Amino acid sequence: MKVLIVSRGVPTAQAPLNGIFEWDQALALAQNGAEVAYMALDFRKITEFRPWGVRVYKRQGIDVFELSLPTGIYRRGLPVLQAMCCNLYNKVEKTWGKPQVMHTHFYFMGAIAAKLHQKTGIPWVHTEHSSKLNKPLAAISALDKKIAAAALTKANRVVAVSTAYAQVLQQNFGVTAKVVPNVVALDGALLHRMPEGAFTWISVGRLIEGKGMHQLIDAFKELLSVHARAQLRIIGDGPEKENLQKQINQYGLQDKITLLGMLSRAQIIEQLAKAHAFVLLSQSETFGLSYIEAMASGLPVVATNCGGPSYFVRQENGVLVPIGDTVAATQAMLDMMQHYENYNLAQIAAQTKQLFSAKNIAEQLQVIYNQLVV
């Protein structure tokens, strides 16, 4: 089957997360026998330096058609961006052929590709990830509602990356979404191998208010009153870094809590392998990649019931706590430390890798594609 992925961009060493979900999916489909073309519409702002213009090349066996322009916008310039999308598609069809199905990700890219679907009639699958839609309808801007509707109500099939997020899309936009999680590249995960010593907690996330790092430090402070030998390592960077360090200093916990900053994926994997358990107290997650990468290393997780984690966190691999409940978070961490021997680390890793494997996700997507292609 010929599948056209329409994405936000191509991940690179300089921008490893740019289009990462789309690219991982494209690789999974190709590895599972699909013929894949990857149309990247990179409209990031001018400060995100990369080669501009149109480039056509092969990468890991996939035909890539890339348009990179520093527009810095997608909402208000929609008609212009739609025209650019259609023009790039003409090159795709001329050199690669007409796809049997088109797959877009994120509502703003879906809205851009909606005109292409209208013009060509290619069956269209749309996967939604964006946290901007993972909130009550009244909290979403009128412009984002309009753009999201252009994708969610026009696509032939809508996919959500978690059960909780599918429910949000149903409530907010009246669409019934099939749940298919993201592909997660877990082959490099290392099984936890922490030597005897202090119980080590690890957290990975952007240092922003929505990731709950201030609350985590508060919860960890209370935990230390019972388990003084515990330590916490936080990986990530962001605007709250200075405030978080001030909070740590104020509590006198510089020898217990370490802000490790931004690390490469390989470095994160190494840190996960040295930890006992993972904790992240997010306020909202449509998916929850950090939790999954930790579980693939065999770590049980403490997560908030904030959306995505409810899809994969179970009694055998972790604990869900209410959003914003510091007392519950502290108790969950204490319980996990006290009953740590009850967790089968190898089983946690194996089950996580199976659930989010490239083959598993590709097969689920191909069932959806086959339903649309007559």
Domain unit count = 2
Shape-level CATH architecture of the largest domain: 3-Layer(aba) Sandwich
Number of contiguous helices: 12
Provide the helix percentage.
25-40%
- Name the beta content range: 15-25%
User: CATH superfamily of the largest domain, please?
Assistant: Glycogen Phosphorylase B
CATH fold-level label of the largest domain: Rossmann fold
Number of β-strand runs: 14
Our measurement of the CA-to-CA distance between the termini, rounded to an integer number of angstroms, reads 12 Å
Q: Could you give a short account of the major beta sheet?
A: 8 strands, mixed
Which stretches are poorly predicted, pLDDT < 50 over at least 5 residues?
Answer: none
Name the CATH class of the largest domain: Alpha Beta
The shape, in one word, is elongated
Could you report the average pLDDT, rounded to the nearest whole number? 92
Strand arrangement within the widest β-sheet reads 3-4-2-1-5-6-7-8
Nutshell version of this structure?
By secondary structure, the protein is an alpha/beta fold.
Layout of strands and helices, then pairs:
Blueprint: E1 2-7, H1 20-31, E2 35-42, E3 53-59, E4 62-68, H2 78-95, E5 101-105, H3 107-120, E6 124-128, H4 142-152, E7 157-160, H5 163-173, E8 177-179, E9 200-204, H6 213-224, E10 231-235, H7 241-251, E11 257-261, H8 265-273, E12 277-280, H9 289-296, E13 301-304, E14 318-321, H10 326-338, H11 345-355, H12 358-372
Parallel strand pairs: 1-2, 1-5, 2-4, 5-6, 6-7, 7-8, 9-10, 9-12, 10-11, 12-13, 13-14
Antiparallel strand pairs: 3-4
Helix pairs in contact: 1-12, 2-3, 3-4, 6-7, 6-10
